Amino acid sequence: MKKMKNLCFFIWLLCGTSCQNYLDVVPDNVATIDHAFSDRVQARKYLFTCYSFLPGFASLYQNPAFLGGDEFWVNGEQFRRRFSSVQSIAQGVQNANEPYMNYYEGSNGASSNLYRGIRVCNTFIERIDEVEDIEAYEKAVWKAEAKFLKAYYHFFLMRMYGPVPLADQNIPVSASPDQVKIFRGNFDECVTFVSGLLDEAAEDLPKVIMNQNEEMGRITKPIALAVKAKLWTMAASPLFNGNPDYAAFINKNGEKFFGAYEHKKWEKAVEACREAIRVAEEAGHILYEFQDQAGSFTEFTKRKLSLRGRVTESWNPEIIWGDSKGNGATNDFQRFSQARLVNGIYDAIQQALSPTLRIARQFYTKHGVPMEEDKTWVGKNVYGLRVAAPEEAHVVKPGEEVPEFHFNREPRFYADLAFDRSVWFGQGVLDENTPYYVFARANEVSGKKDIYAYSITGYFPKKLVYYKNAFNGTNYSLVQYAFPVIRLADLYLLYAEALNEYEGAPTPEVYEFVDKVRARAGLKGVVESWQKYTMDPSKPTTQEGMREIIHRERLIELCFEGQRFWDLRRWKLAEEYLNAPIQGWNIEEKSKEGYYQVLDLYEQSFSPKEYLWPFKTFTLTVNTNLVQNPGW
């Protein structure tokens, strides 16, 4: 049975009706595996085919983590035209007949069949040693890249489906019908398998890419170890580690898919995070800070540019893994995120990617603590309007009235979000005294003028827009960037989380790694901030309190980067966060009094069964040994 679990899933699932189509790197009439491994040039093309199955991390269409949760919402017309597959998950209408974003089979919004990708990786690993005109070192690196991709495709599926069939070898075409009807592995078996592959890959991968002009985006040792850190942190988290909801979830052979809680998994997560950070820092990765060579910006503007640049400064030293496909995808990303700041630019700017009021609410006050915990905010009418003073010109246009909610917030709030009457620095204007301002009320330049290109919530994800993009007449000049899949701040916060869980209480090292991220955001340390400004100064001293703080820190620091979607699931907190209305401002109104009314845009709901993707019902009829996930 163990051997059967290591066979690749049945042939039709891997190849579908176009087995030869995946081999798009060989000439017509020579579509053979032998040709693909005839020399170094052809083998390199085949390696890039292994890469081609990576989902578009920066794609609003291919990555369910952007529009499948509660960070963004789009208006009805954009939903119908573009985003129905992915935002249907956010609307709670996932189904088993035709699952949305079905990466198990590559359908209904998914960019690829990941088992087909695994099959290609297996073939490469099996055949690359036959190629004679490749040096041994290069051959080892290429094989390691394929092993990583094979591991990552399994990991990607595990986040969606939980336990999955393990595909360590390709099944031969002579296999019997019974041989292709394989079982899912239990979750621990899947974790061990993927972790082992990542270790094998890391042994031969380079720490840094030497030929940066041609090879940025290829896999390195820090990437492999960072994914291993994410794997073990996921495995140790409440959704998969002793979840009582899955206690009776069993395979067709009677084996339990999930075991009892194991505290040792947090130790594994600590070790994996520590090693990933060590190697990443040895490779030169540091938290990004904007360098003002001319000395022309105020400290606050430099802070905002550091925070915006941590994502949009392409291949900056904080980025451990950047999406090389993202160089094209960020074009769409930025057009949907950019607020329209000048007239006559309608066709170039879609401005439809709308952060929800829930996300705006999660950012800290200027004291580095949650608004609801800040004792200086007690009794404030946070949605009440007040006039922006001249000394607040760096965040809101002086003399304009906006809610108290938009004043005295932390720097990340102003770096990551834009809102009505707020400052938008850059986009061709680098004079801090005459910046662009967002005017987002009905019929204004950034507001709703039609049924298509507008923010339905009144917020804009400025974090995703490079500040050097510029308006040129009726055109919008874009500087594309490689989207960060994993950056160092992510690892720092993962490590702090794992250490807090493993030790049972926050240690000095837990504070250290959280505070590193906070310092770059211009905030004081956790202990100092809670002691000075909150009604519960002892909160950071307990495991439970620090857990909540670390969760909030991740949700803020990594917002709009595709992390929240998976974090809420592994923490088993999606039921808490996603059973509440999606809210925004009343963008149909022209007056400030009418505009600043909170509206419920959608009554979002989340069922426990949605923690895991359903397998397609038809797939279960073909492979009778495959078990459906609970609730579907």
TrEMBL record:
Family: Belongs to the SusD family.
Domain RagB/SusD intervals: 317-632
Keywords: Cell outer membrane, Membrane, Signal
A UniProt-annotated Pfam family: SusD-like_3
Stored SUPFAM superfamilies: TPR-like
GO cellular component: a single term: cell outer membrane
Membrane-crossing residue ranges in chain numbering: none
Annotated ranges, domain SusD-like N-terminal: 81-230
Localization per Swiss-Prot or TrEMBL: Cell outer membrane
Major localization class: membrane
Protein's recorded name: RagB/SusD family nutrient uptake outer membrane protein
Domain of life per record: Bacteria
Signal peptide range: 1-20
Organism: Rapidithrix thailandica
InterPro entries, A to Z: SusD-like_N, SusD_RagB_dom, TPR-like_helical_dom_sf
